[in-house]
User: Fold this.
Amino acid sequence: MQIGAVAKKTGVSVDAIRFYERSALLPHAPRTAGGFRRYGESDLEALAFIRRVKALGFTLSEVRELLELRRSGLQPCAPVRRRLEQKILQIRQKLAGLQKLRRELNLALRACNRAGGKRSERCPLLREPATRKLERAK
Assistant:
C-alpha cells in the first residue's frame, strides 16, 4: 500500500508518516522499483497505535517507549500502568493550573466590572497597582 492510501486509511497525514519514519517510530518502508514507499498491515497497526497514544497525550519519546514495549514479546502492563498514572498526574496538575488561571481571570473581570466601564475610569487591569491588588486577593 502506498503512503497516500495509508494516510487515508489511518487518518495520519503523509507528512506525519514520513516524520514517524525519520524519528524511527515507524520502520523505513521498503521502496518499489519506482521509488514509492510500500506499507504493510503491521505499519497500519503501528500508525493506528501511534495515533491512539498521541491522542492520549503521550509525547513522541513516550510513544517510542510504548512502541518498544508493544514490540517486545512480553507486553507487560506494569510499565504501561506507570506511564498512564504519570499522565493522569500531569493532567491533574494542568487542570489545577487552569483553575488557578480561571480564578485570576475572574478577579480581573470583577475589577473591571467594578470600574463600571466609565469613559473617565482607567481600566484596573492596565494600572500597575491593580495587578498588585489582584495578587493579594489570591
Summary: The chain is about 65% helix and 0% strand. The two ends are 58 Å apart (CA to CA).
